[in-house]
Specification:
This is Glycosyltransferase family 4 protein. It contains 18 helices and 15 strands. With 419 residues, it is an alpha/beta fold.
Length: 419
């Protein structure tokens, strides 16, 4: 134990998260392990499936199953709110991850009425009858924290909405609950921070969400190329879920070409060195739709499903490509940088801050821009070498697990729960 740790009292942290199969779960697992290793007490609440996948108990945390679904369900949501309220009563800090988990935690910690801006049997209204977020004293902890019986509420937002309609309306309500009732909101991209500040959040800060150290590859690049049937073609790798957020229709448009000497379809010169092979590692609800288009248009795209050999794929790839509508701090791009691979992608969310000069970014939906960036990378050795060197440098500079744990402890100390 370090001298600084010896001066700190034990902090009791309750993490709340919803259904997740990726970065959010790994992030909470890393924080839980780091906090327990520093002598703090941690409980994690979420769906049973997240414990099965991320094993928080083996990290030293106590896991309590709570049904936090990814879709609104009045009865189940009420049960989750009541369970969160009971579970977190003895916590110093309640740290929720994700918007739905954050809103349910706010309702559980603060109470339904105060979270919705209702006081003394009436709504708290601003000028002309508009609801206004309740205020709180940061120095005394009055207001929001008083309603939470001394518990401080921290919410990390890992994603932004990329769909509209009814889902967008519900999302907006949840955003306001989090902005008005959380003591601290941590965000994975500047645009999320601006939005939460605009909604009246008290304290908004960047979240530190590191990727784990990249494992060594087990196979040579040539072995991977042989498996994929790539021949002499350059490989462009995309890592991510086959879902609406990832902009995969744009990726297929880019793959359709035309490409120098190889056309755009896999039947038109598939071994031509100028035509890249697009390889997608991930699974999701759009797989069937994507497969049908790939077959119909004979696109040079391979859908690999979920893979455990990402380091091997990165070793064989010329670059990593993403066409996402929005991203925060995607672990796939962090891994690309650690592997020294340039990134060709969309300038959305937190991607520009991650990539810097280690790639080329274009606006979302710009098919010609993405295809042109790929062609420049493949045809001009100078830019490709500079971007690869920049990627390796940025990969070495990425924050690690210790920095992430210390960043949340700084928030907890600011909240007055330690020391």
């Amino acid at each position: 134990m370090s001298p600084r740790q010896g001066k700190e009292r034990v902090v009791r942290v309750a993490f709340v998260l919803g259904t997740t199969s990726g970065g959010t779960g790994r992030h909470v697992r890393m924080l839980a392990e780091g906090l327990v290793g520093r002598g703090h007490q941690v409980v994690v609440a979420g769906p049973s499936g997240v414990e099965e996948q991320f094993s928080f108990a083996s990290a030293g945390a106590r896991f309590v199953p709570i049904a936090v679904s990814d879709r609104p369900h009045p009865v189940n949501d009420l049960r989750a709110v009541l369970a969160i309220r009971r579970l977190t009563r003895g916590a110093d800090v309640v740290h929720a991850h994700g918007l739905r988990a954050g809103a349910l935690a706010a309702l559980g910690v603060r109470g339904v009425l105060t979270s919705l801006g209702v006081r003394a049997g009436r709504r708290a209204l601003g000028p002309r009858g508009r609801r206004r977020p309740p205020t709180a004293s940061r120095s005394t902890g009055e207001g929001a924290s008083a309603a939470g019986e001394g518990r401080r509420l921290v919410v990390t937002l890992h994603n932004a909405l990329t769909a509209g309609g009814f889902v967008g309306v519900v999302y907006g309500v949840l955003e306001r609950i989090v902005a008005w009732r959380a003591d601290h909101v941590l965000v994975v991209s500047p645009d999320l921070g601006e939005r939460m500040t605009g909604l009246g959040a008290r304290d908004v800060r960047p979240a530190v969400v590191p990727a784990p150290a990249l494992r060594p590859a087990k196979r040579t690049p040539q072995e991977v190329r042989d498996e994929l049937g790539a021949g002499e073609r350059p490989i462009l790798l995309m890592i991510g879920r086959l879902a609406q957020q990832k902009g995969l229709e744009t990726l297929l448009d880019v793959a359709a070409g035309p490409w120098p000497g190889g056309g755009g379809r896999s039947g038109e010169g598939p071994q031509a060195a100028g035509q890249p092979l697009f390889v997608v590692a991930g699974e999701g609800p759009l797989r069937g739709e994507l497969e049908r288009r790939i077959r119909a248009e004979r696109l040079p795209v391979r859908l690999l499903g979920n893979r455990e050999d990402i380091p091997d794929l990165l070793g064989a790839a010329t670059a990593v490509v993403t066409a996402s509508r929005w991203e925060g701090q995607p672990l796939s791009l962090n891994e690309a940088l650690m592997a020294g691979k340039p990134v060709i992608g969309t300038a959305v969310g937190g991607i520009p801050e991650i990539v810097g000069d280690a790639g080329v970014l274009v606006p979302y939906g710009d098919v010609q821009g993405l295809r042109g960036a790929v062609r420049t990378l493949l045809e001009e050795p100078g830019p490709a070498e500079r971007m690869a060197a920049a990627a390796a440098r940025r990969g070495r500079e990425l924050p690690g697990g210790d920095e992430a744990v210390e960043s949340v402890l700084t928030i907890y100390r600011f909240a007055g729960t330690i020391g």
